[in-house]
Amino acid sequence: MTEVNVNSGHAATRLRRLLAESPIVLAPGVYDGFSARVALELGFNCLYMTGAGTCASKLGQPDLGFATLNDMREHAEMIANLDPSVPLIADADTGYGGPNMVARTVEQYHRSGVAALHIEDQIQTKRCGHLGGKEVVPLDVFVSRFNAAAAARRKLGSDIVLIARTDALQTHGFEDAVKRLKAAVQAGADVAFLEGVTTKEEAGEACRLLSPTPVLLNMVENGATPSWTPAEAKELGFRIIIWPFAAIAPAYDAIRNTYRRIKETGSTGINPEFTPKTLFTIVGLKEAVAVDVAAGGTLYDRV
């Protein structure tokens, strides 16, 4: 890990402290402002903005490289600033181009309040890490992405956490994947992310070989990686867990079932306790009223 700027109030500093002080950091996947509000309501101290969820919710497209830097940065900024005290880890795909674009990505994520971003070694026409047919760039290209990212961070005087993700496990094998992560760490990455790990043996070995660099576990339900509990992940040596599908998968089931009830019965069957005011309270009604009152307003007196 790079040296922490203790005078910084940036969320990245808080994430670095979490990594230093917590046995393991748990970051549920959020795909929009509402799912982020629910996670915040439950008191999670770190969130993860899923790229697949962003593509699906913001663009209505599969995770095949449709999202641009502007799509991802805009979405991340909104989520990160719902509660700036809670660090947000955000997907940054391949960095969206060569070294200049990677540097721009780091700069924009930093200015948007993002605490950490992960950059991968797939080609620009990337795909979800749990789909087949992936292709990765040569090692020197991957390293150049982190040379550029680290240089941009230094220029900004930022604490933003750089996470190196490799998809080479499926294309080049375990040894090459670990070699890539070590090279990225040498270039300035703070955290290692081995995508698509399939066994406890390779997971534990990766954590051992990459130590003392923190290793992130991508817990994609029903994907390439088996489902492990936080206790199991900690025992294997992981320091961060993200759950990209934690919100969007149950949302699909709930929304689809409700729409089907409308077609079949003409009724939603929604819990009567979920009123409009309940929704607005979840997304900040009390805070909005407080701002208006503090400014001398009376517009929301009867809300």
UniProtKB/TrEMBL annotation:
Name the domain of life this protein comes from: Eukaryota
According to UniProt, the reaction catalysed is: (2S,3R)-3-hydroxybutane-1,2,3-tricarboxylate = pyruvate + succinate
Q: Which organism is it from?
A: Penicillium canescens
Q: Which PROSITE patterns does the record cross-reference, listed alphabetically?
A: ISOCITRATE_LYASE
Q: Drop me one GO molecular function for this one.
A: methylisocitrate lyase activity
Name the chain's protein.
Oxaloacetase-like protein
- Family membership noted in the UniProt record: Belongs to the isocitrate lyase/PEP mutase superfamily.
> Which CDD domains did the record assign?
ICL_PEPM
Question: Where exactly are the transmembrane stretches of this chain?
Answer: none
Output the Pfam families linked to this UniProt entry. PEP_mutase
